[in-house]
Amino acid sequence: MKDLVYSRERTLGTITLVIGVLMWLGLIVGGFGGAVFSLVAGFVLVQFAQFALIAHVKGKGIELSEARFPDLHAQFIACCARLQMETPPKAYLLNGNGGLDAFATAVPGARLVVLKRGAVAAMGKHVDRVRFYLGHELGRMRMQHLGGALLRWPALWLPLLGAAYSRARETTRDRHGLACGGSSEGAARALAALSAGPLRGKNLDGSTPGSEAKNASRFWMSFNELTAGSSRLSRRVARLMKTEASLPGRDRFAYLLAMLVPYVGRLGVRGGALIMACTVAVTAAVAITAYHDNMVKARVARAVADSAPVRDALVSFYHAHKHVPVSLRDADIPAKLADGTPLSLDPTAMVLTLALEQGELVFTPGIDKKDRMSWECMNGKGLKPSQLPPACSEMKIRVD
């Protein structure tokens, strides 16, 4: 069954998975938790949407069985056997309200293939066309195209790469449909029927569609395909008629323009809104985290500057009395800054702590062999290292 998998899908699948995981790691490290929350929230949101979709299908659709639509059920079971799926998923027939695409969905404990009434009607009485339609969706489930999307998600938006991976998966599913139907001619006509609709699709006869493949090299047609997740009908038909078909090259200038266009999937179609919601959630989480850190960093930088006179006074006291003051009062230093920030002193090592609303800012002194003092700025309880301003990381200011 390995020959059913388009070679580019394996390559692009590995590339997108590696890049996606690396990008997630980058977001997690750079976002300090915001991306982790978004990843978990996105997973929960996807699962919730899948459960809701399954509930809708079970409530509105009709499950195929030996008693209900026995002919279609028999073809479905035959396709599962042909594709070596030992545990067939459940299949439902649903009124697509004009839509023709079938789809598959899965959650823990439930796997469904949903067929649209209009698409089945478009295939007419041609068994090979119907089986292609069934096999295409079974291929989606067999190849687990429903899983791993969240990990790959950041990489799937990359220009050229995301669309190429989507087209490669589509080719793999077409091969599953062909294996199930057993007829290249029937598979090609099934694709044409899906394009023509239920009223005209079942009456398609004559030459096999796909003669327009020679136009694939045109700039705008090439650009459209390079930015889309689905190959044009002519290319799909050509690959069905001959597995390693020699296809016309795409316009090279179309690649240059396509490199500037992120792949956004089939927005407006199933899952598009959900992808956009996850995109907004992740972007917002990372942006909000970064904004918050920058705000805190600005407040800490102000506190570093405002507390400079306090540190100077402590150093002066130490040089004058040759010991650390017992308290801030002992050194005639107020217990608060001018803005009301509380100060505390650890007399053991003359460690000065500023209790900011965002967390503690700690100044630790150091004395070299020549009795020269310097201060080191560190984050304390509630304050992240990333929220320290450059003045802190570059501090270690020597005070003679």
- Total domain count: 2
Given the helix and strand composition, which structural class is it? alpha+beta
**Biggest beta sheet summary:** 5 strands, antiparallel
Please report which band the strand proportion falls in: under 5%, 5-15%, 15-25%, 25-35%, 35-45% or over 45%: 5-15%
What is the straight-line distance between the termini? 78 Å
The radius of gyration computed from the alpha-carbon positions, rounded to a whole number of angstroms, is: 32 Å
Helix content: 40-55%
Question: What do these coordinates show?
Answer:
This protein is of the alpha+beta class and 400 residues long. The protein folds into 2 domains: 2-265, no CATH class; 288-399, Glycoprotein, Type 4 Pilin (2-Layer Sandwich), CATH 3.30.700.10. The protein has helices at 7-31, 34-60, 70-82, 117-123, 127-142, 149-156, 161-181, 184-196, 198-201, 219-226, 233-241, 252-258, 272-306, 308-321, 390-393, and strands at 62-63, 90-94, 103-107, 110-116, 343-346, 351-356, 359-367, 373-379, 397-399. A 5-stranded antiparallel β-sheet has the order 5-6-7-8-9. A 4-stranded mixed β-sheet has the order 1-2-4-3, sandwiched between helices. α1 (7-31) crosses α2 (34-60) and α2 (34-60) packs antiparallel against α13. The longest helix is centred in the C-terminal third of the chain and has 35 residues, at 272-306. The protein is elongated.
